[in-house]
# Entry
Amino acid sequence: MGTETQDEVNTRKGGLRTMPFIILNESFERIASYGSQTNLIIYLMTYYNMSAATGTSIIGLWAALSGGLAIVGAIIADCYWGRYNAVAYGTIFTFIGMVILWLTSMIPQLTTFACSQFQHVCNGPTAFQLAVLSSSFAFTSIGAGFVRPCSIMFGADQLEQKGNPENEKIIERYFNWYYASNGVATMIAVTTIIYIQDRYGWQIGFGVPVLLMVLSITTFLIGSPLYIKVKTDTNNLLVGLSQACVAAFRKRKTPLSLTGCDDYYHSPYETEVLTPSKDFRCLNRACMIEDPERDLNPDGSASDPWNLSSVERVESLKALIRILPMWSTGLMVFVDMNVFAFAVLQTKTMDRHIFPHFEVPAASFSVFLIIALTIWIIFYDRILVPLLSKYTGSPRGLSPVTRMRIGLTVSCMSMALSAITESIRRKRAIAEGHEDDPNALVNMSAMWFVPQYALLGIATATHGVGQIEFFYTLLPKSMASIASAIDTVGNAASSLIGSFLVSSEDWLTSTGGKTSWLSSNVNKGHLDYHFWLLTFLSLLNLLYFHFICRLYDTGNDELPHVADEEECDYRLLHES
# Structure
């Protein structure tokens, strides 16, 4: 009497009735974050007197921090806080960051004095002003690190019904609606929020995201009594992979010998017994039992997980290592996207009118990337796949590797087109006498930039979907969620690479008193050279991709297999 099973609790809580609270929480957070970040380069250059290169580097570091903390947030949520607390605390952190950013637009002492175009030297921000601005970025990054990886899985927890034969279909439908809502939220952010900032100023433009975060917190907490709150699990996969790395390092001097399958530690929760694969044999030390009395508890579990890892964990780590070369080929696509902050400065100098009385905000042109991405995914899934499957015999249409190759090729085309368009814009600006006036309007329509945004959207969709599907084919089912986490890490790594590239390029091209390619005055700088550099790097990355594909064709993607009795015979493995 008085006890409840988990299934009985789940019938009273969770379900579709919780979806509005969870999806609205994530949507409001995304609109607030993306709406504040997309147009931020203009705010930093205007109110902090930063150069275009410095502002772009700071935005890149902010994005990298947010992506990197997503992994930390996922581990803390799974092992300690639980997903409910992670989303709740993360939303509050983001709210605090938005409030601080809004206050910088409200309190004049938190920003620098405006710098006119006639001043040769402008006063930069003080240490205190930078500290306040940085604290805003830090709070929003911490918030995103908890909300982004945990919100989607928290929603899945509410719909999980293992005994329901329709469970997988319900979860898949939820994921579709979740990503669709994120797409709508992103479009609202880069259109409505940006329009408010351009039309009514930064005080209202940053105030609206603060109100959205209040709504985000409120809607999520209102649904609290209805949520299923799954207990934390200390056997987190990422922690387990870290334990395997540490155990292998600790035993790096241990000989790699095998006298039988019993010399390796196997997880008691696994139904299949695996033998360590032959590649990356140095990692096999992590699962070797050297002294059973010291290494094992009476119940057969590892006494110290950081000194003895299971074969299953080691094989999962190897699977992750196998996909890293292919993962690295996708970084350049994200780098191309992350340095598009300069495109805001370009479109700001051009005619952005669609109708005589309506002008598209400069930062809102990224909406064409999102539209192209969405249209291409629908077109490929509904039209191309049925047609291609008739000729290829594959129900997927094109293979993941082919899609990645197409995505990287289109990315090169997008950067080349960006360089050509900027060269035309710059020559026209100089011909019209605007070389010393970066705010002057060039007699050229900003719609010239739509094709390059569209190509980059197609490249992102084609490569991104193909890469995730490729990961799913190589990773064990227990690591399916890692595919999404790797994508997040890729965003963070590419943001760091983009920031380093911009800073280095700005420093190298401005030596000797020369005008930097990435000058804040885009009419004096050479953004076309910058895009040609990205084109060259993208082309090198495409060649690197073809080289990596040859490595995978040699059979290096060997997967774990079930052990046979004859495989347990004595053998001595060479050191590696």
Summary: The chain is about 65% helix and 5% strand. Strands lie at 257-258, 350-351, 353-355, 358-359, 442-445, 571-572. The chain has a mean pLDDT of 82. Residues 167-200 form the longest helix (34 residues).
